[in-house]
Amino acid sequence: MNGSQEELELAERFEIAFNQIHQQLKAINGFPKNDNFMELVQRSKQKHSVIRHYFDNLKQYAKLRNALVHEKIRDDYYIAYPHREVVEEIEKIKQTLDQPPKAIEVATRPVLFFKTDSHLTKIVEAFNRFKVSQFPIYGDNQRFLGLLTNDGVVRWLSQNMQKGCIELEDVRAADILKLEKNHNVRFLSENNSIFDLESSFERSFEQKQKLKAVIITADGSQHNKPLGIVTTWDLIKIDRYGDES
Description:
Elements: H1 5-28, H2 37-45, H3 49-70, H4 84-98, E1 114-115, H5 120-130, E2 134-138, E3 144-149, H6 150-160, H7 173-177, E4 184-189, H8 194-206, E5 211-217, E6 228-230, H9 235-244
Parallel strand pairs: 1-2, 4-5
Antiparallel strand pairs: 2-3, 5-6
Helix pairs in contact: 1-2, 1-3, 1-4, 2-3, 3-4, 3-9
Pfam families: CBS
Organism: Thalassobacillus devorans
Protein name: CBS domain-containing protein
């Protein structure tokens, strides 16, 4: 017995969404020779939170798709039909991959930053108040100069203590930056996606260069006002993002 018109339409919608997701997975993985759907899902799961979030669903949809395509009796007859809820869910996943959340949505905002002439006392107060470990430092014309970290402050203090005392009144951010390590910082624009953000951390990991932070500006230039900042701690937000959407 043939399926109803509604069932046939649901099956067609499911196949279309599945094929589009398959193409998106190929693109995410650089169109590898092995483009098996589940192989791509497994590979993408390691890199992207959206795929991790929908992993179990995608695994089940792959089985359903195989049943629809490979066990199809004729063009208008399937041995099973997807429920409307399943079709709507796979279309939702496809839409999410089409338009993934923006990196700025999981970034810490607004960004608290300091100038090179900012007093160290103000910076130390900010460390204590906001419970963070680093602040971007900017020079003239919003020129990014580096990250000032609590480790850098401790390093400066240890080198400038005399008889158990330290004079902080005239110490500026620029003085601390001289002792800071060359921290790995990357920049993204406010239009970049979570995929772009995760790829930045993934590339740094592959290059064995710890990425200290990703700073988001309007156009991705490092010399524009910071709109958001993402650290490894903020990546936890990405894994939770799908649960909140």
